[in-house]
Amino acid sequence: MAQRTVLVVLFEGVQSLDVTGPVEVFGGATGPDGGPAYRVCTASLDGAPVRTSSGLTLVPDHTLADAPAPHTLVVPGGIGTRPEVPRLVDWVRAHGPRARRLVSVCTGAVVLARAGLLDGRRATTHWAYCDKLARDHPAVEVQPDPIYVRDGHVATSAGVTAGIDLALALVEEDLGRATALTIARHLVVFLRRPGNQAQFSAQLAAQTASREPLREVQQWITEHPDDDLGVEKLAARARLSPRHFARAFQAETGMTPGKYVDRVRVEHARRLLEDTSRGVEEVSRACGYGTPEAMRRAFLKALGTPPAEYRRRFHAPLPASHPHPVTL
């Protein structure tokens, strides 16, 4: 099998993890002969070293002018995408359509949008820049929630570590699930999160309550998804009336108690389906749904897929030599 060339664009102010995350994934893939499955290289406009937003210096392999024609072109993000960089945008506009796959990480989507390569397509970027991307480029259908979005040969991902998820998905597409799983285990990450997973977990999406009783309730919900998590019970734990608790919880966390519980339970069920062989009925009980049908409705609403199909796509059984689930 011929090596696929992955070219990562470098520029001043690039986010280092946007570069190194995908590079580690593609660089860790082996082909049937045991050799590298990808030829991974980097290039900057003039071939000069670039300083990342965190202060690291990256030395490119090529100038963009003499870089090899890529199968997969990766445009990372970072503070360097905020100002106009006409030469970089012009190069991406000219060469991006020639790549078999065009990929952006984080605010790299801004470069693709400025080059006109996202017009008429669905795309995402770091949550903090989704609104601006939508305002500045109305021809782009910006989707702020998913960790990555694929539209034809163009794939865009959310902030930083989402580039690893997208790269693993591309490796799985090219070389199969076993290869992607081997890389994920080596990097000690999930095999991959599905693209339609929200950019935030429930704990991150919700603000942390300032009052200690409400923070304790948030932690209790996370640790006891199978318990009775109705408003009355939660209010009692916070030593508040149900009405006062519901108002205070939403005011301090930005979401209702019921929505927070729903998100925690779906996330817990996802992890059990991905990392264990427990049956759907057992998982539904462990996550507080009571019945598989209740969990099925929750999955369809949150993820657009039923639990059985989700397990088929994302369950990662480990060999005997790895008896414990790999987690992030």
From TrEMBL:
Entry GO MF terms: DNA-binding transcription factor activity; sequence-specific DNA binding
Superkingdom to which the source organism belongs: Bacteria
Residue ranges occupied by any HTH araC/xylS-type domain in the UniProt entry: 215-313
Transmembrane annotation, as ranges: none
Coiled coil: none
InterPro entries assigned: Class_I_gatase-like, DJ-1/PfpI, Homeodomain-like_sf, HTH_AraC, INH-QAR
PROSITE patterns: HTH_ARAC_FAMILY_2 (PS01124)
Keywords from the named record: Transcription, Transcription regulation
Record keyword ATP-binding present: no
Gene3D superfamilies: 3.40.50.880, Homeodomain-like (1.10.10.60)
CDD domains named in the record: GATase1_AraC_1
Name assigned to this protein: GlxA family transcriptional regulator
Lineage of producing organism: Bacteria, Bacillati, Actinomycetota, Actinomycetes, Kitasatosporales
